[in-house]
Design goal:
Order of helices and strands of chain A: EEEHEEHEHHHEHEHEEHHEE
Low-confidence stretches of chain B: 354-360
Largest sheet of chain A: 6 strands, mixed
Largest sheet of chain B: 2 strands, antiparallel
Shape of chain B: globular
Helix content of chain A: 25-40%
Structural class of chain B: mainly alpha
Strand order of the largest sheet of chain B: 1-2
Order of helices and strands of chain B: HHHHHHEEHHHHHHHHH
Number of helices of chain A: 9
Oligomer: heterodimer
């Protein structure tokens, strides 16, 4: 379990997170939603340890984050950004192998190679292994990065693996968006803690098992999809009038602006 | 579902390193045998055996002295400087996340040149320094200070929130090179001969008149620097993804960047303070290696040390052959060869790089 307790984060006298408490469990995909500037990405960075909270604590499986070494953190939690740009023509397998850096000193072992192969295989991208990363499409690049972070936390037991996805689908097309969140959901159902910041509320509604809605650095609402994706809550979040209908076949709520 | 897929190739660079090492040894022997006095390779062997006290075969004593005191340190120094500049090129390219960076472009060389010119012209006035324990090391120390100052300014100006802006880096490099270049020009203007002459010689780079002390100093910084750089190659690779990503992989990007900047400047400044400014080596060598086997930093660093040494040894040999018994400054040769090669690389990439531009 990943637990944030009364997190505050200030830059200068500007308070970006104003006392956020939340628990993210394995089993279901956790999604953080909220308008621009609500503090979603900042919260994710505090959870990952990239930012240190001004007040409050983050616990990984009841261990305070500050007490875990950077190397140990890297072995159990991985972070995926919106987009990772490269200026050098590295191959896909070299990129994925970077995920194993916290695990070997100088040279990768055969096990490291096998883990990278398995990660690429899981993303359905093993045939990209020898390709130059720069020649891939945006969607393929993001898939390779996903394989890299999977390789990074391979080896730890499922309950102690944490994936933090920072708007991973922003630059992806429809097919890749769904492929991505489907895999994220699958990983969560295996017991991993998977927390994703997602802008698209309908996409979130389809895959999330737990939604945390942030507004101005505070938790506005949290719970299951049907508890959070409701017209009055969406209105309080984004300040627009919406109606929420059920998908005719899937039953997932769909938000439509009025 | 993809059981037919080929697994990831287990990268092995051993054979390539061995080939590069053989090339280096061949270049060393070639360079040792050519010059104002040509020495057959068989004779070189006898000198070595004698120097180590293994053989006492009859040989010309004067020629042996020329070989051991002039030719040998010169060739070894050119190898060390070639390695230092190329490793530094590979390091800077990783740090700035751009393959066209080299010590000359980001101001390291110009800064080091200014530091050295300062010592040539005004060093004797700093009696409190030159008489003290640091006296013999004043040249490398000032070269380091100048090089570090120039590099850190360019790096800070061109980096914003963890990303390097290429255009800003080039322009900052131009500004800093201009500033330090004209400062060096000013020093040579107020200098008297022979100070002014030594600045001119130094700006062109050359291995004339080097001795074993230079070899000792440069070998320490180059070998230690290269080993430390290779130790950091995982971190440098991770940094290519961005500072935040390197942090997520358990690295400390800020500390790494600072260490690499210092490491790089120590190597370049020591080498430059002994032999002057030698351009293009740091650019061309990692580039050739990229064409051979990709951009993995560990491979580039090890490969650069071997190939860089080979190429500069050959360039120096060439500088002694072309107008023998006279010699050309080696910096002239590297620029004459390096500049057209660089242009060729630019043109080639313009047409074949699918991403467009120079690695975009």
């Amino acid at each position: 379990m990943l637990e944030a307790t009364d997190i505050r984060y200030r830059i200068g006298d500007k308070e970006i997170l104003r006392g956020i408490s939340a628990q993210f469990e394995g089993g279901v995909l956790s999604v953080i939603v909220g308008p621009n500037g609500s503090g979603k990405s900042t919260l994710l960075r505090v959870l990952s340890g990239e930012y240190v909270a001004t007040e409050g604590t983050v616990h990984y499986d009841s261990e305070p984050l500050q007490r875990i070494s950077h190397r140990d953190r890297a072995r159990m939690r991985a972070v995926l950004s919106q987009r990772t740009e490269l200026t050098f023509p590295l191959t896909v397998s070299e990129i994925v192998m970077m995920g194993r850096y916290p695990h070997f000193l100088l040279k990768p072992s055969n096990e490291d190679y096998e883990i990278c192969e398995a990660a690429l295989e899981r993303m359905g991208a093993l045939e990209l292994a020898a390709r130059n990363y720069l020649t891939l499409s945006g969607g393929e690049q993001q898939i390779v990065q996903f394989a890299r972070i999977l390789a990074q936390i391979a080896g730890a037991s499922n309950r102690k693996r944490y994936l933090l996805l920072d708007e991973p689908t922003t630059f992806l097309d429809l097919r890749h968006q769904h492929q991505f969140l489907h895999i994220a959901q699958e990983l969560a159902s295996e017991g991993m803690v998977v927390v994703a910041v997602i802008h698209d509320i309908n996409l979130a509604a389809q895959y999330a098992g737990f939604i945390l809605a942030l507004e101005s650095g505070r938790v506005l609402s949290q719970g299951t999809v049907h508890q959070v994706i409701r017209p009055e809550i969406i209105h309080d979040l984004y300040h627009i009038e919406v109606e929420v209908i059920a998908g005719p076949h899937t039953g997932f709520p769909i938000v439509i602006a009025q | 579902m993809r059981s037919e897929a080929v697994p990831i190739v287990r990268q092995s660079f051993g054979i390539l390193y061995a080939a590069l090492a053989v090339l280096l040894v061949a270049a060393l022997f070639f360079a040792l045998s050519v010059g104002a006095v040509s020495i057959p390779v068989s004779q070189i062997g006898i000198y070595f055996l004698h120097a180590f006290g293994i053989s006492s075969a009859a040989h010309p004593v004067l020629e042996e002295a020329v070989f051991l005191q002039i030719r040998l340190p010169r060739v070894l120094l050119s190898a060390l400087v070639g390695a230092a500049l190329s490793v530094s090129g590979a390091l800077m390219q990783a740090l700035f996340r751009n393959p066209i960076v080299e010590p000359g472009l980001v101001g390291t060389s110009a800064g080091a040149a200014f530091g050295a010119a300062f010592v040539f012209v005004l060093g004797h006035q700093l009696t409190w320094l030159s008489g003290s324990i640091v006296g013999p090391f004043m040249l490398p120390i000032f070269a380091f200070l100048g090089g570090f100052l120039a590099t850190i300014i360019v790096y800070r100006v061109s980096t914003f929130s963890g990303k390097v802006t290429v255009a800003t880096m080039l322009l900052a490099g131009i500004a800093i090179n201009g500033l330090f270049g004209s400062s060096t020009g000013f020093l040579s203007y107020i200098a008297h001969d022979p100070q002014a002459r030594s600045i001119t010689f130094w700006m062109l780079g050359g291995f004339g008149g080097v001795d074993w002390n230079a070899v000792k100093l440069v070998s320490v910084t180059t070998i230690l620097g290269t080993l430390l750089a290779v130790r950091n190659s995982k971190g440098l690779n991770a940094l290519l993804l961005g500072e935040a990503e390197a942090g997520h992989l358990g690295m400390n990007p800020k500390q790494l960047q600072r260490n690499i900047l210092i490491l790089n400047t120590v190597m370049v400044a020591t080498a430059t303070s002994m032999v002057g400014v030698i351009a293009f080596v740091g650019l061309i060598v990692p580039h050739i290696l990229r064409i051979i086997r990709g951009s993995d930093t560990r491979y580039l660093l090890i490969g650069s040390s071997l190939l860089g040494a080979t190429l500069l040894v050959l360039a120096d040999a060439l500088s002694r052959i072309i107008i023998a018994p006279g010699e050309l400054p080696v910096g002239v040769i590297t620029s004459f060869v390096g500049a057209p090669v660089f242009l060729w690389i630019l043109i080639r990439h313009r047409s074949i790089d699918p991403v467009g531009g120079f690695y975009a």
